[in-house]
Design brief:
The complex is a heterodimer of chains A (123) and B (132). Chain A is mainly α. Chain A has one domain. Chain A is built from 5 helices and no strands. In chain A, helix 1 runs antiparallel to helix 2 and helix 2 packs antiparallel against helix 3. The longest helix of chain A is centred in the C-terminal third of the chain and has 31 residues. Chain A is globular and about 40 Å long. Chain A starts with a helix and ends with a helix. In chain A, 52% of the residues are buried. Chain B is mostly helical and 132 residues long. Helix content of chain B is 84%, strand content 0%. Chain B is built from 5 helices and no strands. In chain B, helix 2 runs antiparallel to helix 3. Chain B is globular, with a radius of gyration of 19 Å. The chains are: A mainly alpha (123), B mainly alpha (132). Chains A and B meet through helix 1, helix 2, helix 3, helix 4 and helix 5 of A and helix 1, helix 2, helix 3, helix 4 and helix 5 of B.
């Protein structure tokens, strides 16, 4: 049940374009018995239908730069292969630690942009 | 003239490389978060508009995600019931979020979101490196 409510929250944040999918992993690891890799895999599987939906509606609004995407996809694939192999090779706790550091970085960045934009509004 | 053009071509190629490779690597290693590197890169290095960058990041992430997922599945099957719950919740939330987008001040949401990330990040890093 907590997972379900949390997914709604994650969905809201994703819908607002802030990458809420990343919240799913700590949610699953702390509030269910899913392993780190399992949670990450689930997050991947989760993002395919949700981003497909969003991409489709944006495609109809002509908000996509397809040429740019075509240039980038081969490189993201080249990066994804070693990344995913490393993830399945690392131990669950080390992977969890790395994930935590990445979250701290993202959270810090989010708060930093908050202060920046708040300052802009005042001046 | 010609030389300049080829230099800028090289610069572009380099930008595509330093945008694409880490995005894929983060996506593969952490299962998510590739987009949070990709979108700022698209706007800063490849000069896309914010909205277009966001939309384009979605279609770049999709094939990348499929590849990462395929690699994961060799090691571990997916927890299917959990997946159904999260997808159902995510779809409901996604619809609500898209509607809220114009009504809630995004600035404060960014702060709250940032704090949640920071707290869960600390907890995960601690549990991962020091906990059992």
């Amino acid at each position: 049940m907590i997972v379900f409510i949390g997914s709604i929250l994650a969905g809201i944040i994703t819908g607002m374009g802030m990458g809420g999918g990343i919240l799913l992993v700590p949610l699953l690891v702390f509030f269910s018995d899913t392993s780190q890799l399992g949670a990450q895999g689930l997050c991947l599987a989760f993002s395919i239908p949700t981003s497909a939906l969003a991409a489709w509606s944006l495609y109809r609004q002509k908000k996509l730069d397809v040429a740019c995407a075509k240039k980038l996809v081969p490189w993201t694939l080249c990066g994804a292969l070693p990344g995913a192999l490393l993830a399945s090779w690392l131990s669950s706790s080390v992977l969890q630690g790395i994930f935590g550091l990445f979250l701290i970085f993202l959270g810090g960045r989010e708060i930093y942009t908050f202060w920046q934009k708040k300052g802009q509004k005042k001046s | 003239m010609n030389r300049q053009a080829s230099a800028s071509q090289k610069g572009k190629q380099k930008n595509i490389l330093i945008t694409g490779l880490p995005t894929g690597f983060i996506n593969g290693l952490l299962g998510s978060g590739g987009g949070s590197y990709l979108v700022p890169q698209l706007t800063r290095k490849l000069k896309l508009e914010q909205q277009i960058a966001h939309a384009t990041s979605l279609i770049i992430i999709m094939p990348t995600t499929l590849l990462s997922l395929a690699v994961y599945l060799f090691k571990q099957p997916l927890p299917l019931t959990m997946l159904l719950y999260t997808i159902a919740g995510g779809c409901i939330g996604g619809l609500v979020g898209a509607k809220l987008l114009t009504k809630v001040p995004g600035l404060w949401l960014a702060l709250i979101f940032g704090c949640i990330l920071l707290i869960s990040g600390c907890r995960m890093a601690w549990a991962g490196f020091f906990g059992g």
